[in-house]
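Shipment paperwork, digital attachment
Item: protein structure file
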Amino acid sequence: MNYQEAISYLEGLKIFGIRLGLTRIERLLELLGRPQDRYRTVHVTGTNGKGSVSAMVEGAQRHPHGLLQLAAPRLVHGAHPR
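Attachment content:
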């Protein structure tokens, strides 16, 4: 399937009542008073490293100044063969 075929397929879903986009959820959030703006969020996605990144973010939140510097040991102490 090429790009144009994919677009045609997605456009064809409209006949089944599927409407792509964020318009409806944005309207709902507006009606609810934008609750997503009341708290700070870090959304971690991806295939690998979510646990590590989440742990680093938590560590940064706990730091008295709200920051945390992390470096791989091999970058600080030189390369070590594995």
